[in-house]
Write a structure and sequence with these properties.
Belongs to the FliS family. The protein is mainly α and 137 residues long. The chain starts with a helix and ends in a 7-residue tail after the last helix.
Amino acid sequence: MVNNAAEAYKRQQIMTATPEALTLMLYNGCLKFMNEGKDAIEAKQWEQANISLQKAQNIISEFRITLNMDYDISKQLMPLYNYTYDRLVEGNMKSDTKLVQEAIDIIKELRDAWAQAMKKARQDQGTKNAQGDSYVG
């Protein structure tokens, strides 16, 4: 019963999240799965490592598919996503935690930059609203 309530709450959070918040959730999920995969490799739980790392790979694939290549930042992110994906695949195949950690470090840096950009955007929006600027959608 409690689990159903928790799942419903999580589903509601996802359904009402902004695209920016969803991206942050995906980064956090990706990090969670990569850390689970790394821990499973260290515990020699190969099947669990494979499952977790493939979940992280799926999230990175989603990031790659949804990049809007009209923006310069996307042209900079694509090689990072490709490299991170390759580190995960190779780390999974070789059961190499160093390669997985390299992927974790990259995604953590991108996640932190994304969170910082969201915070700055909220501050900028707050400044505009305080100045009496109105948004016409």
